[in-house]
Amino acid sequence: MNSLREIESCTDALPTDSGCTIDPITIQDESDWFSFIGQNLAILWKDWPRDMEAVNLNNGGYSFKGTCPYPNCNRASVFIVLTSTGNGSCTVAVLQCQACQGYILGIVEIPPHTGRAVYSAHYPMGSPDETVAVEVPAHIREDFKEALRCLWVKAYNASAEMCRRAMEATCLDLGAPPDKVLEKMIDWLEVNRKITPYLKDAAHKVRLGGNRAAHPPATPITATPVPAVAIAPAAPALPNPIAAITPVEKIEKEHAEAIVEFCREFFHHVYVGPKLVGKYDFTKPKATPPPTK
Ligand SMILES: [Zn+2]
Question: Which of 117, 142, 195, 196 makes an SS bond possible with 108, Cβ 3.0 to 4.6 Å?
Answer without folding.
Answer: 117
